[in-house]
Amino acid sequence: MQSAVMNPVPAWSAVAREQFRSVGLSLRREAIVAGGCMGLATLWLSYLHVNSGGAGIPFAPQAGIPVAVLALLIPMAVWKGEEPARRGYHRAMPVSHAAHAVMRSLSGLGWMMAAVAGYFAWLAGVSAMTGGEVMIGSQPYQWLVPFTGGAVMYLLGSALTLVTAHPWRWLGGALVAYMFMGAMRVADGTRSLFELVNTVIDGRYGLFTVLSGMSRTHGLYSPHVASAPVWMLATWMWLAVAITLFLFAAYRQPER
Amino acid sequence: MTSALPVRLTEGPFAAATQGLAKRFGRDFALLGVDLQVPEGAVYVLVGPNGAGKTTTLKLLLGLYTPDAGDVRVLGLDPRTQGPLVRAQVGYVPERGDWGYGYMTVGRLLEHHAAYFPRWDWQYAHRLAGAFNVGLDRRVGRLSKGVTRRVHLILAMAHRPPLLLLDEPTDGLDPVMRDETLGMLAGHVAETGCTVVISTHLVHEVDRLADHLGVMRDGRLTAQMPREVLHHNLRRYRAEVPVDWNGAPRLNGTVIRRGGVGREIQWSVWGDEREVARLLAESGATVRDAAPLTLEDAAVALLSRKD
Fold first, then answer.
1. Residue from B60, B75, B103 whose CB has the most chain A CBs within 10 Å, to mutate
2. Most CB atoms closer than 10 Å: which of A8, A15, A34, A171?
3. pTM to 2 decimal places
C-alpha cells in the first residue's frame, strides 16, 4: 500500500489539546469534591468569624504544603480506569506510546498547577474575608514551594502509575515497610536502613525540604526555613530524580 | 498420499503478515513461530481456544507488544518502528471491554477518538451509532457489556481504516444485536473493501463473513487457508467397516478427527476426496458419503486434532 493513500497520524497539537481536555474531564469528580470541601470550609470559617470573632486565617506559603503532598496521588486520578501498564485504549492510539504517556502526564501536571494556584486564590479570599495576616515568609521562594514540591511528587506518582498496574499497593506497601522499619529499628540491620530512609526524607536536601522549604539541621529538632541555596539545590536534585524516573517509566513501560 | 494441512497462503498481497513470530511473557512462550498471512480484502477468522495466542497476535500487529523474534508487517509497515502509522490504518476492538474513560459520555468519547484520526467521518459515526442503537449522551461507565462492544465497533469503523482487528467482537452481544452487528460489519466491508481479522473461539457467529480461516493452538498457527480450500479438502467421511477392521494406515496423518458408532465410522479427513475414498475402500471400508464441513465443524475438527 502506498503511503499516499494511508490514513495520516494526528498532529501533536490536536493530541495535546485533546489530552488536556480529557484529563480535565477525568479530574472533574476530584475537583468537585475539593471544591465542595473548600466551599464547606469557607462557610464554616465565615460562621466562626461572624459569630465568635475567631482569629483570621493567615495567608502563608506553608499552607500549600498539604496540596504538594497530595500531588503524589493525582496521577492515579489522571490515569483513572486507563491502567497504562495494561496496554489499553491509550496505547492503541496512532501516536508514539512514550510521548503520548508523557503528554497525558504533563496535562495532569498542568491541571495540578492550576489547582495549586486555585487553592492559593481561595486561601487569599478566605484570609481577606477573615482579616487574616498575610505572611510573606522570610524567603520569597517559599511561595514557589507548593508548585515545585507538588511537581516533584506528581512526577514520582506518575512514574509509579506508569510502571505498575497497582500503584496503590506499592504506595501502601512502602508506607507499611517504613512503619515496620521504624517499629523494629532496635535491631541493628533495620536501624541503619531506617536511618538511611530518614536521611532521604528528612535530611538537609531531603524530600521534606523540597515539600516545605524547611530544613532540620544543626541538631535541632524543630525545623527552620531553609536558605534559598539549600532549597534550590534540594529541589533541583529531586526534580532531576523525579524527571528521570518519570521518563524511564514512560519509555520503558513493562509488557504483561 | 495426501498433503499436510496448509500453513502458508499463496495468494497475496497481504494486509498483515508475520514470519517466525515469537512472544514470551516471563519463561512462557505465548507465540512461537507464527507465520500469519492475511490477504488484502479478506475477512480472516483466527480461531483458537482461550490462551491460544490470538489476542497476543493482534497486539503484536498493532505494535502494543514487541516481538521477541520474527518479523511483522502490516500494510507493508513495521509496527516496531512505525507503530503510530500502523495504528492510524487500523480499527481495533479489544478483547477487554473495560477500556476506561467511564467518566465520558459516548459522544464525548467519540469526540476524543476523532481527535486522533484526521479522517474520522462524523456522519458515518452517527449513522453507526443510530444503527447500533447507542445513545450518545449515555455515560460510558454505565453501559452494558453489549453496548460497550458496539461503542468499540463504532470507534474502530468510523475512520474507515483499511484494516480492522476485531478481538472477540461479538462477545456480550445478544443474538439479535449480534446479527445486526455482523450485518453492519458486512456492509462496512462491502463499502470500504477493508481487510478484517476477527479473533474468536465462537466461529459460528462469524460464519457468514469469513473467507479465510487460521487455526491457533498453544501459541502456534497450525493451519490457515481460504475457505474454499477448506471446504474442498476437509470432509467428513461416513463409512461402514467390517468387524475386524484394522483402520486405514495409509490415511495416518491426514485424519483430523475420528468418530463413529459400532461399525459406522465418521472421520474428518484432509485430502483429495477421491483419493481419501479410494484409500478407505482399500482398507475395507465402504464409504457411504463424504460431506464438506461447516466452518464451525471444520474449526472444531482442526482444533481437536491429536498430533
1. B103
2. A15
3. 0.87
